Each structure stands twice: as structure tokens, then as C-alpha cells.
Amino acid sequence: MSHKRIPKRRAAMAAGGVVALGAAAVLLPNANASQDGGAPDDAAAAPRTLKAADASDLASRLAGQLGDAFAGSYYDAGERQLVVNVVAGDDNQVVVRAKKAGAEVREVDNSMSELRAGAGTLKSEATIPGTSWAIDPRTNKILVTADRTVTGADWDRLESTVERLGSGMATVRKSPGTFKTFVSGGDAIFGGGARCSLGFNVTAGDGSPAFLTAGHCGVADAQWSDAQGGQPIATVDQAVFPGEGDFALVRYDDPATEAPSEVNLGDQTLAISRAAEATVGQQVFRMGSTTGLADGQVLGLDATVNYPEGTVTGLIQTDVCAEPGDSGGSLFTQDGLAIGLTSGGSGDCTAGGETFFQPVTTALEAVGATLGDGDGGGAGAGAGAGAGAGDDSGAGDVGDAGDGAGAGDAGDDAGAGDVGDGAGVGSGDGSGLTG
After folding, report:
1. Active site (annotated) includes residue 409
2. How far apart are the first and last CA of the chain?
């Protein structure tokens, strides 16, 4: 079989407006840069300066070490520190252990078990289309959001359910938009008359090339093309929506298809080294076929969204904007970590709003696929000569808690290099991404 190379389609970022250009100004100068990590060994008891990805790893370790005393965490981007909530009670050692590990510690009232129980009550008593909820570690409460369709008896039911949770357990806010999945007709990747965005190229369990996109795109049609009215280039292998996620694995029909682990930013690519968990407070970037590049912050994890089509759980809540056609598009960090796949939300890139994302880590585990090199090492930025992030680049291994975890060596000759012609999978004119 001939070696198939799918042309890369570049983006006109003007389609994304001011928000996309603002995000580009933040991201592009740092497309292959890494932040400093770690702290001097003699400052082990003080909050450490960390990259967001390293903060996420530290939070996961502390969640296991602190047990029931752990009440969530978030990343303070300004201070570049991990803030850990604890319900210490009489056990002062809980605070000591968290501080020794390098976290800023905050004692709070609501435990994670109490907050999760509250979310369970909302699920059983207030699963109303147009509502969502997620635990917000910055307020130590459940953030409940209702879109403009939640009125009358539905609004009264939601408010009364929140009141029954007790004082200080949850807050309710109204969104001026409407929660919906971001599918549209137009150009990008096409199937069944719908337009979506390619998220990340991956390797399926049998070694064949594939990509991830939104599950509601995957259930819309079995075959997808990179051009409107064009021949299919990929076939849906697995799709979940609604339910426990919003993701799909789509296999390229030609096993010789080149599917590099990168995101096309328009005038350069960003190498994607691995998937990572999101952290509340983390700065993230989204690429989509309608609005191009946009950025914002993670607001909540394990979010539940009640779309008109049904309830989806386990999502990431952000203030990053998105519009129809952006569904399935990639959510990532400036140092090349894959975070999420665009699911849906409310608002647009003029007025703003909430957007929810499927965690990439959960999707990969569910479909049995891998992304990048899987261990934090840098991947090449393109197929042409001079491409690549350099030897041993990437995030590196994070040290044990309390040992001065850092970002790892940046490696020699780090940088994007020249991007090889045609290295990537096009997602339609103006799409601005290749996976």
C-alpha cells in the first residue's frame, strides 16, 4: 500500500477574533518552552514553585497520602503554587505532611465525601436539562450553574435542592447562554452533515493510527472526511455519549496515514508529549475549527452537565470560549500536554461562557489508545528536517513528594524547528489544528 500523506490545512486565525489572537500572543512565543520547576532543598517546608502539570501530580500523591483529610486542591497560577484544602480536625500532622510536600495548605469545612454526597443529591433530585455542577476547590463548595432555559418550576426545584444541602455547601449561578454540544454544519471534519474538530492523533491498541474527538460527533456518523463532501478518511471505532463521558476513537482507514502528535496553531505546530490531568486554576488553550485558538482557566473537575440529549459526567469545566463546530477540538497546555476534548457549553467567543471538556486521560484509558510517547518526553514538532523539540525535551519525571520535584531537563537544542510539509492531518480550511 502506498504511503499516504494527508495535506495539512493551515488556519486563518482571524476567524477566532480577538480572543484567539490574544491567546496566540500568550502561547506562540512559548510553543516549545517549559517553565522552571522545583525549589531549593532547604525550602522543603515552604510552598514550592511548580508547573501546573507537576502541581497536578503532587495533588494526586497528596490525595492518596492524606486520605479523608484531603478536600481538593487548585493551582495558584500567579504564585505558581499548589493549594491543598484539608479538613484537619485534631490531626495537625495532616497539615505538616502537606506543607512538607511543598503545598500551600488551607483548612476548610467541607470534606470531599460531603461535597460528593451533595453532588449525588443534585444528580438524584435535580437532573434538569440546562444545569451543571462541579466541585470548586477554591470556594470549597459545589458550583451549580443553570442556563437560561431553567425557569419556573425547574428553577424552584433546583434552588430548593441546593438549599437542602445546607448552608455553605453549594452556590447557584445563572448562565445567559444555553448548554449545548458544539456541533455545526460547515468545514473541518465532516460526518453525517455535521462538522466537528479533530482533537488529538493517537495510536490505537493494535498500533494503527487514529484520532480522538467528541463522542457526540462519533455517534452522529460512522465515517468522517477532512473535506466537505469528500471521501471518508476515517471510521468510528468507539463512541461514548451521553453517559460517562463524551469521546470517540476514530481510526484512519489507511494504516499508512501519518498522524503526528501535535496541534497546528496556524503558523507553527505545538508538539504534544503526553496526556495529563487537569488542575483547577491551570491555564489552558483550546483549538477548534470555528474559532481557532482561545485560552482560559480550569474552573472545576468531575463536572456533570445535563445536555438536551442526556447527562454527561466526568467533565472538565472551564471559562474557555467555544462555538458550534469546535466540538472535539483539543484542550492543551503551552508546554504540550493534552488535557481535554471540547464537549459543549454555553455562550460564544464574543460574550464568553462556560465550556466543558472530556478529559483525555479518561478517554485514552477507555479506548485503549496511547498519545505521544507516554512518558513526558518531547515529540518532534514536524516531519521536516530540523523538526523536533531536541534531545530529552519535555516535562520530565516529577520527583517524589517533598523531594523538590521539578520539570526535568529541557534538553539540548530544544525548539520547534522547521515543520515538515504535510506532516499532519488536515481538518478543513480554517480549522487551525492537525490533531
Report:
1. no
2. 24
